[in-house]
Specification:
The protein has 59 residues and is of the alpha+beta class. The chain is globular and about 25 Å long. It contains three helices and two strands; from the N terminus they run αααββ. 19% of the residues are buried. The chain has one domain: Arc Repressor Mutant, subunit A (Orthogonal Bundle), CATH 1.10.10.
Length: 59
């Protein structure tokens, strides 16, 4: 699995919007890797932000 897959899985498992820090705690992945994955996922439209600084998988 890629970092992006792990990030999406953590968000789905949590069932709520998550910040990068929360994803880091849930997965143990380095914050820089999570930030990079967030940037790519945002560009792909795979995640959306319902609340400022929190993200969740797009429907």
């Amino acid at each position: 699995m890629t970092v992006k897959d792990d990030v999406i899985k953590a968000m789905k498992d949590a069932g709520k919007p998550m910040s990068a820090g929360e994803v880091e705690k849930a997965t143990g992945i380095d914050r820089k890797e999570i930030d990079k994955a967030f940037k790519e996922l945002k560009a792909e439209g795979a995640i959306v932000s319902p609340v400022r600084c929190k993200w969740e998988p797009a429907q």
